[in-house]
Write a structure and sequence with these properties.
The protein is mainly α. Helices cover 70% and strands 0% of the residues. The protein is built from six helices and no strands. α2 runs antiparallel to α3. The longest helix is centred in the middle third of the chain and has 26 residues. The radius of gyration is 22 Å and the shape is extended.
Amino acid sequence: METFVFLVSGAIVLAGALGVVLFRNTAHAALSLVATLFGVAVLFVAQEAHFLAAVQVIVYAGAIVVLFLFVLMLLGVDNEDDVATEPVRGLRVATLVVGAVTLVGLVLFLVAGEVTITGQPAATAAITEGTANVVALGRALFTTYVFAFEVTAVLLTIAVVGAVMLVRRPRDTGEGRA
């Protein structure tokens, strides 16, 4: 059963990732990203990382992708982009080279890798004895890293306000010039 869940969710992740890269319509690419993120969440559940799965769905699939779609629809980018008119000289070749180097590096890493990576207990083990991982994570997030957490929230808010201001600004049509 575990292998079946892995194969199905892995296929969903791969199909969604290919959709993100191959779809010309940006709204369809963003929706493919949602499929990819849900597939990763299922993989987290299969590894018994339920908190990460919930964060994956709530934060990434729920908030970030909705923000992407909001900005895309706000900017009116729902039409297909004409890639033929864009200056992409050498970009496709560079992308293929970087992808090939990454693939070769991953294969070498997997072949040369050892069975035990860290020698530490499993990732699902408690971080500290007697304290649940969620409690430890919450304490760290809202005490030690509260400033970084708040700065991230402010930056996301500024990004949305900036996108709205870019869309609301009247366009200069050149009329009235001598």
